[in-house]
Structures are given as C-alpha cells and as structure tokens.
Amino acid sequence: MRFRLLFAPLFLLYACSPSRPSGILNEKKMTDVLVDYHLAQGMAETQGENIDVVRYKYIQAVFKKHRITEAEFDSSMVYWSGRAEEFTHIYENVVTRVQAQAERMGLEETANQDKFASLTNEGDTANIWLGKDFACVVANPVQCVYSFQMKADSTFRPGDSFIWRFKTQFVSRSMNNEAIALLSFYYETDTSTCVTDLLRNSPKNELRFYPGRGLDSLNLSSISGFIYLPMVNDADKPKPLLVSEIQLIRMHKEKPIIKETPVLVDTISIDTLPKEKSERLTPQQVRESQPRERKIHVTKENPNPIRPQKGIPQRTNRRRNR
C-alpha cells in the first residue's frame, strides 16, 4: 500500500503534463537537424557568389536528409524555443557537435582568419563578453527581446572603443525578417550615447562604437544592449532568430608616441666659417688702415768719453789766451 501511495503523485504528474504536439520533433531529432542546419549555413558562407541561393539549397538538402518538411522544422523551433531550459540543453549539444564536425570538415580554417576569433579577456584588445554564447529570440510577448548589462571595472579606460559582434540566423528566409540591435554606453557624468543597427538576413553583424571628442576623456560606468524581434500580425511573420558567437571587443586608446628631438652639437670650427663681407671703406679709411713706418729716435752715448784726469789742467782755447 505504501508503495502505491509513493508512486501515485508521480503518475498523476506525468498524466497531467502536456504532451508534445504531433508534428513536433523530439529532443534528439531536433538536435540532429540543428547540427546539419548550422553546418549547411557555414558551408554556404564559404561560397563566393549567390550565398542566399546556395544556403537555400543546402538547407533543403538537410530537410530531405532527415525526411522532414520546412513547416515541421519551423513549428518545432517555435515549440522548443518557448521552453528555455530544454532549448538551452539542446543548443549546448548542438554547439559542441557543430564545432567538432566543422574542424573535421575544414570549416574552421575560415574562422581562424578572423583576427578577433581567438581573443581573450586580457590585453589592450580583449573580448570582455561574459554572457552566453548563444540566444534565441522569438516574436512573442515573452521572448521578443534578448538583453544584457555590464558594469565597467578597473580595466576600462577613457577613450575605449567597442565592437559588439554576433551571428544571426532567421529560421525561415523571408523578406520581412527584421530585428533591431542597440548598444548603449553610460558615463559617470550622466552622459549616455548609443549605436543601433537593423538586422536582416545577413549572418554576420557588428555594432561599432568609437567615442568622439568630449567622450574620450570620460570614465565609462556601464554598457547595455539588446536584440529586439518585433511582433507583426501578417501571415508571413518572422520566425525565431538564433543569435550565436557573441563577442564584445574592447580596444584601449593608443597612447601617443612622444619623439625626443635630438640636440644638434655644432662641431664646425669658427675658423672654417666664411667671413662676412665688410662695408666698402673710404680712401681715407684705407690709408689709415695700412701699416705705417714709425721712426724711433734713439740717443746714442759715446762709449769712450774723454774725461779730465786728476792733476792735469783742462785744455783751454789757446787762441783766447793769445
């Protein structure tokens, strides 16, 4: 009796749980289809021209391989995307298998050419994304927006530039497939700015932000962004939007390189410099500037003067005595 009472609530819970509608792929089948679906998208991107035409052919080949219709795939995507936990588990397996299969098929060589593909969260140019690598946006009141918010930390610097990169895939190719992406920046001085982009059927998307004059000297406080899938009432409404390979690249502002001006030392001798031409001299100035012969008057003394000796009378003029 106790055994029956223990399993009675489990039986009632299972009986009351809603069953999967007919035509909806189960979890394993959905995972297998999504793996081939993403590989087909990657193979189409390697083609040079008419990517949309090639992508359509590859996707139709995926449906033919798994023996399903496009309507069944679309309905299954809407069903599973409305169940967040189950769909997250499915998509985690899909990402793991797609990466492993792409390496074997050589599709990763194209991704390696991307200079941002192998960035880490360190360095002057870093991938600072901390959220999930994928998301699913559905055109309903509950899942029509995917958003994030990030606070600035000590690694942020005034003048930083940012690139929000991600891949998008609408489940159904339609001319009305449109989504809106917005990236906002908030500074400490209650200043804010944003960049927006209209997402269509292009698989690769980037929102770039370069702070202009006046913003490049302010400290950033936070960053936020969202992807919004509008709801329309027509029959050809947008199908679920898959967002994958999300990155937020932060690039520090390059510091100006200050070049020291070398001090030139003049080693030229003064004697080698050309002499400046003087003004023309007058004839009088020419005569005065010429060397003159100077006469020196020298008084010579008789080396043997005649001096009177003692005791000898001086000689007098004899004529006078006469």
Explained architecture:
By secondary structure, this protein is of the alpha+beta class. Among the domains are: 94 residues; 127 residues, Sandwich (Jelly Rolls), CATH 2.60.120.680. 31% of the residues lie in helices and 21% in strands. The chain is built from eight helices and nine strands. Strands 1, 2, 4, 7 and 9 form a five-stranded antiparallel sheet that branches. A hairpin with a 4-residue loop joins β5 and β6. The radius of gyration is 49 Å and the shape is rod-shaped. About 4% of the residues have low confidence.
Structural key phrases:
single chain; 322 residues; alpha+beta; Jelly Rolls; 5-stranded antiparallel β-sheet; 4-stranded antiparallel β-sheet; 8 helices
Query: What's the gyration radius in Å?
Result: 49 Å
Can you give the mean pLDDT?
78
Number of helices: 8
CATH superfamily of the domain at 125-251: GOLD domain
Approximate shape: rod-shaped
By DSSP, the count of extended strands is 9
Beta-strand residue percentage: 15-25%
Order of helices and strands: HHHHHHEEEEEEEEEHH
CATH class of the domain at 125-251: Mainly Beta
CATH architecture of the domain at 125-251: Sandwich
